[in-house]
Specification:
Blueprint: H1 9-12, E1 14-15, E2 18-19, E3 40-42, E4 48-56, E5 75-82, E6 84-87, E7 90-93, H2 94-99, H3 104-129, H4 141-144, E8 150-152, E9 162-167, E10 175-178, E11 183-186, E12 190-195, E13 201-207, E14 209-216, E15 223-229, H5 240-249, E16 259-262, H6 264-276, E17 286-287, E18 290-294
Parallel strand pairs: 1-11, 3-10, 8-15, 16-18
Antiparallel strand pairs: 1-2, 4-5, 6-14, 7-13, 9-15, 9-16, 10-14, 11-14, 12-13, 17-18
Length: 308
């Protein structure tokens, strides 16, 4: 499991029985950096996943001998997630595949690699943005975060804005859930007819690639978010972004967050802030020891308009 104390999707999920970590195209996660770090769990059922969401921590008190104490118990709720179908099936023009100099099978392998890369990149977008990314998909961090774990940066400009997520990822925390016992099914390629943009038919090789996935949100204190960060929200000289991260970190009262998810432009804004305050940082890959994962789904910040 590498340096993590939990399995990621590379160790959990398998394509026709071969773990992603051992798959012949081992770079299928290169466009999904969060999936390389996020905990993964097998769904409790093939198409559904149930988990306990802690809503209140246990109360503890000291007491004197022969005296009672007013204790409160922790509280949980059962959450049921309907997994979504991740469809990476692809068609290839028969004539094009047969014309490839290294042969049809080699061309199909190239297309398989491209399809899987795109599928995992889309899965990562859904994990972060949820129904904002694709309304037909499962709920993600942006849907599941509790209102008490959100800091609003109140961007008012009309330019692009971004958001930052802080999560505690673990088998009992925020995780990606994989159905069908972790299997991503690649069925045999077959020839069929497809229609072009003008509804004219042509022959294709079709390869079905299907999986079932969803998000386990963990407890109330396992996902935090800074939303609506724009270039007018803070100036990189003031370190306001660093202060907001500190305020968000303080909200994690029941466990340490172990991942921060942001767009690379937000990381650049934070890096400029440190540099302008006299602490040059060539590359920012963590905040106070918490790894930063840079993901496209968080939204681009208009970094060129920041000072510094």
């Amino acid at each position: 499991m590498g340096s993590n104390a939990y399995a990621t999707i590379a160790q959990l999920a398998a394509i026709n029985g071969t773990k992603l970590a051992d798959f012949e195209s081992s770079n299928v996660l290169e466009m999904a950096p969060l999936l390389q770090k996020l905990a993964a769990v097998s769904a409790t059922e093939k198409a559904y996943h149930k988990y306990l969401r802690k809503t209140t921590g246990a109360g503890v008190a000291f007491r004197a001998f022969n005296a009672g104490a007013n204790l409160s118990r922790s509280q949980d709720e059962v959450v049921s997630v309907t997994l979504s179908v991740l469809d990476a099936s692809f068609d290839v023009d028969v004539a094009l595949a047969n014309a490839y100099t290294k042969g049809k099978d080699a061309y199909l392998a190239i297309e398989m690699n491209r399809a899987l890369k795109a599928a995992f990149a889309s899965l990562e977008d859904q994990i972060i943005l949820g129904t904002t990314s694709d309304a037909t998909g499962f709920e993600g961090f942006a849907d599941l975060v509790d209102s008490g774990m959100v800091i609003d940066a109140n961007a008012t400009d009309s330019d692009a804005y971004t958001q930052i997520f802080m999560v505690r990822t673990a088998p009992d925390g925020a995780a990606v859930a994989v159905g069908s016992d972790g299997q991503i099914s690649v069925s045999d390629t077959y020839m069929t007819r497809a229609l072009d943009g003008s509804s004219h038919p042509f022959d294709v090789f079709r390869t079905p690639v299907l999986g079932l996935v969803g998000v386990q949100g963990g407890g109330v204190y396992d996902i935090g978010m800074i939303k609506d960060i724009g270039h007018d929200t803070f100036d990189s000289d003031t370190m306001e972004l660093d202060e907001m991260l500190g305020a968000l970190y303080a909200k994690f009262v029941n466990g340490e967050p172990n991942l921060i998810v942001m767009h690379r432009t937000a990381a650049e804004a934070l890096r400029r802030g440190y540099t302008n305050q006299g602490t040059p940082v060539p590359v920012l890959d963590n905040w106070n020891g918490i790894p930063i994962v840079k993901c496209r789904a968080c939204g681009t910040l208009a970094v060129d308009e920041l000072s510094g």
